[in-house]
Amino acid sequence: MRFGYWMPIFGGWLRNVRDEDMPVAWPYLRDLAVESEQHGFDLSLIAELNLNDIKGHRAPSVDCWTLAPAIAAVTRTLELMLAVRPNYHLPSLTAKALSTLDLIAPGRVSLNVVSSWWKDEAAQYGAPFDVHDARYARTQEWLEVVGRLLREETVTHAGPLYQLDGAVLEPKPGRPPVVYMGGESPKAKEIIARQADAYVMHGDAPEVIAAKVAELTELRSATGLPPLLFGVSGYVICRDTKAQLDAELERILNVRASPQAYASYRDFIEGSQLESQVSIEEYSVSNRGLRSGLIGTPGQITDRIGAYQQAGVGLLLLQFSPQREEMARFGADVIGRWHAG
Fold first, then answer.
1. Pair 46, 71: CB distance under 8 Å
2. Is pLDDT of 93 > 70?
């Protein structure tokens, strides 16, 4: 099992808690990344949103593609999974950025390709916005162009959305970045099976995740490509006693969300095709993180991780609050225990 975490570029993960003691500031993010390697974390996902969909549209958030090279420069082993939304980035310039990042962090840069769901943000920022199936058509062509540029000496491409005339990209990265994708619609799964290297899922119980792993494994087998890797998101509450756990759940599930945060949540629900309904309680924590059940004592959480491994999961993408302190606890009490067997 590999242990990853979401970089807290939004100042936290809890819609009901205004201040999580996780400042949107470079010293905090820098120290968090450096310390995460010491705690045993393998990977960090840096999300890409120009508006803050956790704390509200007017709250601060950090740009993924500006932050990534800074994090790369101060870390040694951490894989950086950079989120990218094709409607915001030309595939040619993304490929060029990836080749440069590989000079800073050789073999440590990967992609989380997200077919953008946020219509209001696109309108605010002047970006094109595609309806559901059209956005996946864009993703499909975008991935094809990026992949060719990172592998081929000269690329000419004439597609519905992108045109390249003898493009040259040098230097090439030492290896093409691993492509992680998520999605629950039939169209999303079709593209993931054909063009991704890994499928990352919202939080859910191990038995639910096992069924999704089986479905994507079957779709993938028809392509003749190497097997997919699988990851799942989760929100961690690690405590020694039930009283401590109950107190923390009360803190994060007290539904007193701001109107701004709740509005962005509704934008997400209306712009996505989800397989299951998200409850108001789950709204409190992003990415359906509580469904993963990574809640309890270190021993209970370790057992739950084992259940995910049995389900076919090889990567956990975790959220914590407050992140720096809770990641240190998780590293000592859970990652250490896991590797000790």
1. yes
2. yes
Domain 2-340 bears CATH identifier 3.20.20.30: yes
308-324 average pLDDT score: 98
- 202 pLDDT band, cuts 50/70/90, is very high
Strand partners, 25: none
The H-or-E segment that residue 229 falls in is: strand 229-235
**Distance between the two ends of the chain, CA-based, in angstroms?**
12
Domain boundaries, the chain: 2-340
Q: How far is CA 130 from CA 248, 269, 318, in A?
A: 40, 16, 30
Give me the count of residues in the chain. 341
- Supply the pTM of this predicted model: 0.91
Structure tokens belonging to residue 277? 């309904």
Closest CA to 82 of 112, 52, 39: 112
Q: For residue 33, what is the DSSP state?
A: H
Determine how many CB atoms are found less than 10 A away from the CB of residue 337.
14
For residues 151 and 148, what is the distance between their CA atoms, to the nearest angstrom? 5
User: Is 275's pLDDT higher than 90?
Assistant: no
Q: How many beta carbons lie within 10 A of that of residue 339, not counting itself?
A: 10
Please, how many CA atoms are within 13 Å of residue 246, restricted to the half-sphere of its CB?
Answer: 3
**Looking at the predicted structure, is the pLDDT value of residue 44 above 90?**
yes
pLDDT class of 3 with cuts at 50, 70, 90? very high
